[in-house]
Amino acid sequence: MKWTRDTRQRRIVVISTGGTIASRWTGSGYAADASGDDVVATAAVPDNIDVEVLDLFNVNSSRMTTDRQLALLHAVHKILADPGVDGIVVTHGTDTLEESAFFLDLHHADARPVVFTGAQRPFGTGDGDGPGNLYDALQVAATVRGLGVLVVFDGLVHAARGTVKTKTLDSDPFADPSGRRVGRLGFGQVDVEREPERPAALPLPAPATAAPRVDIVMHHSDGDAVLFDASVAAGARGIVLVGTGAGNATPEIAEAVARAVDQGVHVVLSTRVSSGTVAEVYTGGGAVDLAAAGAVLAGTLRPGQARIALLAALLADTAGPERRTHLLRGLLEGPVRAEPVLAATH
Question: β-strands 149-153, 114-117: how paired?
Answer without folding.
Answer: parallel
